[in-house]
Fold this sequence. Notes:
The protein has 237 residues and is an alpha/beta fold. It has helices at 26-34, 36-39, 49-53, 69-77, 90-100, 120-124, 156-165, 179-190, 204-207, 217-224; strands at 59-63, 82-86, 113-116, 132-138, 166-176, 196-198, 230-236. α7 links the parallel β4 and β5 (166-176).
Amino acid sequence: MTANKPGDPTTLNRLYGRSVGKKLRKGQLELIETLLPKIAMPAEGSVTAKALFGDDRALHFEIGFGGGEHMAARADMLPDHGFIGAEPFINGVAQALTHVAGDGGQRDPLGNIRIHHGDALEVLSRVPDGALSFIYLLHPDPWPKARHAKRRMMNDGPVALFAAKLRTGGELRFGTDHPVYLRHALMVMRRHRDTFDWLCDGPMDFQQRPGGWVETRYEAKAREQDHEVWYFRYRRR
């Protein structure tokens, strides 16, 4: 059998895992009904800054944004940039919408975020090559069992897709507290040294959170459990 090339759609991940958790609160349901349709990603067509925001601003893409705290903080930090977030878990989408809406009036609503409730790779495949400035993959599901390794987002197919969609000099940020996933991800990224440079001069570069990298709820939970957390930055050649 002929092996598929990295980046071939047949090598990309299926969407695994649960999509629904605790019952949503009334306010969250209202945001899903009223706000989400206004900022949802279009179901088809090319995904460009012009199509989403009306101009040619820098684009960021977060895969599996969890509760959306990192995405919202970055969007607030960089109001002239555009942010695309994809998350299959409806509870995470609902929580992200509260951040977009302004956290109950604590700040102004964020107009530079677009959300996809579903598979990140489907949307990412519609982004023109070289269009993204940042891709974030923060504390993804580790799928720790060996037989589930193909389900991990850090695999050859998705990483080749990341490389295609990032502009030259664009950045892939990856964070995890799971040692099995850490070893797997480093092994995969070594195979992509022709397209990515690891931005690392020493251990402190991956042991301490870099500037502008906002803590997620999953990172905070990991620290509460005394887990070590690792941070990786890769620049597209």
